[in-house]
Each structure stands twice: as structure tokens, then as C-alpha cells.
Design goal:
- By secondary structure, the chain is α/β, with parallel strands linked by helices.
- It is built from 10 helices and 10 strands.
- The longest helix is centred in the N-terminal third of the chain and has 16 residues.
């Protein structure tokens, strides 16, 4: 007998298995996501007196890299669910994990994998991104080695002429702590916090992109997706390759780019109700175009 197509619940379990295998962090085996596997969502329930239910509200906080994407996804979700109100707030990946853990937010955003110490919360990756170094478009330096980047960010190299550029002081910009790029950058280039030397720091990606686009001597590390999208729109920035591999969504998709991270939704427990429906929506093909439009790669591509 020919088997029929898998049930929605089977599809969900397959997706969870694939996500777990790819991302390397553990998801609870009992997670149920999506309307086919969860209870009736809160926004469809009625009050006991027969009056319509109050609008269901979701608060999503955390990663500034993910926030623009999640705002677009939320807008599309609300169009299909007019009795749901979703608020998205930035603040960095650390905030996203902490708010989810404490129940301050319904869903957190972390633009990285969860750590072993964060095993008390549930994480589900919806997309992939990378981190790259940004220069002004008119800066003539074509590339930097890992050793040169480490030297710039520890103060051992302070002039662009030392790495093939013009005779000008390097304006070193870092990211504020709490943003995933900060930890991932230091770990990859083997720079300790105490050794880090920078002239200034920026919070979200747009702030960093603006800082480099307005200063030919500046350097900063940013989201590949955000930076690629800004460069394509005409912002005068240039993404440097990492370890000889171009910083692009294509190299992230093929797995050749070395400095990548998952974009992760975080919940205190297995998401159900409206939160479960929204997480399921974020995993569906209905928003793959939004992920790509924001310069990211759908996680299971």
C-alpha cells in the first residue's frame, strides 16, 4: 500500500530533528509547534460571558539583528490573525534570552546558538547569518588576515598603511556587550576582553553601518545579512572576506563562510497557543521570502 503524505505533527517532528542536528543545541522532545499539534490558540477563544476575547498580545525582545526581520514576520502574521498584537523590542541577544527565561517576554531573539548554561530555555533556529568586518567603500584595503584583524582590535596596529592602506589612523569600533556579535567576534579572533582596544562602540547594526559609511578610516564588525542589504541599497560600505571567503548570504548558504551563527527564537518552555503558532509560522515557507529579503538564509535551506 502506498503511504500518504506525513501528518502535520510528523512534519513538525522531522523539522525539529533536522534543526537539532544542524544547530547543535538540544530541543525538548515534547515541543509541540503549530496549530495542528497544539491546543486552540488563545486569540480564538471566547470569554465565559460570550463576549469576544481580548486581543492576544505577544512581546518579543532581544537581538537587534533579528528585530527588523521579526517585525516583518509579525506584520504578516497579524494580517492573517487580526486579533493578535505583537510588539518587537531590541536590546541584544542577552536580553532576549534573559527576558524569555524570566517570562518578561513571550519570545526572545538571540542571533546565536544557545550555550550549555542556557539549557533551561527552549531555542529554535529559523535562519542563518554571519559576522563580517566592514570598511568604508573608499578604503583601499582589499582584505585583512585574521592576524591583522586581531592586531587592529588589540592596538598593535593603529595605522592603515601598516596593512596596505593610506597613511591614516584606524578608527576602531566595537559592539556593546550583550550583542551576540561581541562574544562571537572575540572568540573567533581569540581576543580577550582585557586586550580589546577600541575608540568607540555601537549598539545595533544600523548604528554601526552608519558609523562606517560616514568615516573612511573606520572599521567595525556587523551582521553579514544587514551589511549586504545596506551595500546593495547604495550605502558606501564594503564587506571584507573572512579567511579568504567572501562575506555573503551565498557563502553562508553553501557552508563555506567560517563565521556564521543561527538566528534563534527563545521561549521559557515549549511554545503553545499564540506563541506556538507564531513560532510555527516563522518555520514555514510562508516567510522564507522575508528571510531572504533581509539578507539571511532560511535555516533548513
Amino acid at each position: 500500500m502506498t503511504k500518504g503524505p506525513p501528518s502535520p505533527c510528523q512534519t513538525t517532528r522531522n523539522r525539529k530533528w533536522a534543526t537539532r542536528a544542524l544547530s547543535g543545541f538540544v530541543l525538548g522532545a515534547t515541543i509541540l509547534i503549530g496549530s495542528a499539534c497544539s491546543k486552540e490558540p488563545d486569540h480564538t477563544r471566547k470569554l465565559e460571558d460570550g463576549a469576544p476575547a481580548q486581543p492576544a498580545k505577544l512581546l518579543i525582545t532581544g537581538s537587534s539583528t533579528m528585530a527588523p526581520l521579526i517585525e516583518e514576520i509579525a506584520e504578516r502574521f497579524q494580517h492573517a490573525h487580526p486579533n493578535v498584537r505583537i510588539t518587537v523590542e531590541k536590546g541584544g541577544s542577552a536580553r532576549g534570552v534573559q527576558d524569555a527565561r524570566e517570562g518578561v517576554a513571550d519570545i526572545g531573539m538571540a542571533s546565536r546558538a544557545l550555550t550549555e548554561a542556557e539549557g533551561d530555555v527552549v531555542g529554535l533556529a529559523i535562519a542563518r547569518d554571519g559576522i563580517c568586518l566592514l570598511l568604508h567603500r573608499d578604503n583601499p584595503v582589499p582584505a585583512l588576515t585574521d592576524t591583522q584583524i586581531a592586531a587592529i582590535y588589540t592596538g598593535a596596529t593603529s595605522n592603515w598603511k601598516e596593512v596596505g592602506g593610506t597613511d591614516a589612523a584606524i578608527q576602531v569600533i566595537t559592539r556593546t556587550e550583550g550583542h551576540s556579535e561581541f562574544e562571537l567576534f572575540l572568540n573567533y579572533f581569540k581576543i580577550s576582553r582585557d586586550a580589546l582596544k577600541a575608540h568607540s562602540s555601537v549598539g545595533d547594526n544600523l548604528e554601526g553601518i552608519q558609523a562606517v559609511s560616514s568615516n573612511r578610516e573606520a572599521i567595525v564588525f556587523m551582521s553579514v545579512g544587514e551589511s549586504e542589504r545596506a551595500a546593495k541599497s547604495g550605502v558606501p560600505i564594503r564587506l571584507l572576506p573572512t579567511a579568504g571567503v567572501s562575506a555573503s548570504s551565498q557563502s553562508i548558504r553553501t557552508g563555506s563562510y567560517p563565521l556564521t551563527r543561527p538566528l534563534t527564537l527563545v521561549t521559557k518552555t515549549a511554545p503553545v497557543g499564540v506563541a506556538g503558532e507564531f513560532v510555527s509560522f516563522c518555520l514555514s515557507h510562508q516567510i522564507a521570502d522575508l528571510i531572504r529579503r533581509n539578507g539571511f538564509v532560511p535555516f533548513l535551506d
